[in-house]
Amino acid sequence: MATSTDAQVDLNPIPLYDFLDENEDVCFIRLQWLDYTNMLRCRIITTVFASLRHEVYRPVGAELLTLLEDEDGNVMHDLAGAMGESPLIPDWDSLQLCPWAPEHASVQCFFGKYNSGSEQQDQKHLSIDEMCPRSAFQKAIVQAEKLRLRIKIGFEIEFCVSGRNEDGSPLDRPQVPHSASSMNTLENFMLPIMDEIATDLEDAGVSVLEYHTGDHKGQYKITTGDTQPLIAADNLVFTCQVIRNVCKKHSLAATFYPSWPPSGIHINLSLLDSGPEESFPAGMLEHLRAVFAFGLPLPASYSRVLASRRQFGRFEAWGFHNREVPIQRTSQTSWQLRFVDASANIYLVLAAIIISGTAGVKEKTTLTVKDCKGVKAPTPAMVPFKNKS
Fold this sequence. Notes:
- Helix content is 28%, strand content 23%.
- The chain has 389 residues and is of the alpha+beta class.
- Strands 8, 9, 10, 11, 12, 13, 14 and 15 form an 8-stranded mixed sheet that branches.
- Helix 3 (133-146) packs parallel to helix 9, helix 4 (183-203) crosses helix 5 (229-249) and helix 7 runs antiparallel to helix 9 (346-362).
- It folds into 2 domains: 14-129, Glutamine synthetase, N-terminal domain (Ubiquitin-like (UB roll)), CATH 3.10.20; 144-362, Creatine Kinase, Chain A, domain 2 (2-Layer Sandwich).
């Protein structure tokens, strides 16, 4: 797949053909993309059409890819009108089986555009649109690689589980005893469901390191292993789909809403070289307020990161194994970004993180912010109300 918006698009179908040869039961392919509001959208095509469209080019697209539209279709119509089209460009290397829908597979897509001044709408005149979130992330990776930065990314994903009414709407969370990392809580009813989630992910090539109960009632956490950045982002989209659909199969609703209770997507970022171990986080900290705009897109996002809730969103700080700050250092070359939640478009927020860190390396920014070793004095939440100013 092309790595620049200026390059001619490579629609190499060989990964598709190899995939279909190995998975003969697949009849449908979901062409998926995340819009700016983190809404996962798709066009479903048959495998027959998927194969034929490489012999005679036939684009699949949407009206400006519904970039800014909510579920009711009533947002930003002035920016996503009826004129124009953005063809979907599948990245066939991202093909995944959908374990909850045996005849389906999914593939992540770039937003495409036809070159200006061209009246022909064919592959030769097709390029990746600079408005594409996935492309923005890929370009950030390329810029990091030019500085010889080798980055791997994994995730800790928090979600809440509740029962379902007959119409499919969520019930209150199951009334069972719950505490963090509790075996009794898991064995109450969620252990086989979490096993199924982990097995489906492993079978699809997504490395699962661990899972356990979260801090709040009905909350669970699953941790995926680190891998190449673009693969990791695609895997996160896939992991959330697996969690939702396995829970749905068992008449449960899985939600990733940031608050309440507070649920996040913790990003584990590792630098495979020790050279930029100070300048990369220095760049992230220098641009942290801007990165927050991508990682905390909803009002509920800021409810989650209140001070003294051990949710790390009110300070521009980092700390070694300090979970009260936005950036936790977990080793000499590994960092955990704790402020992001599932309402963020993961491609955009990771692009912002890598661009800011890369800028720090390029400019040789010094890490002047000291290691935050914790709050010794009582925090506002600990002070009695009458003593608060």
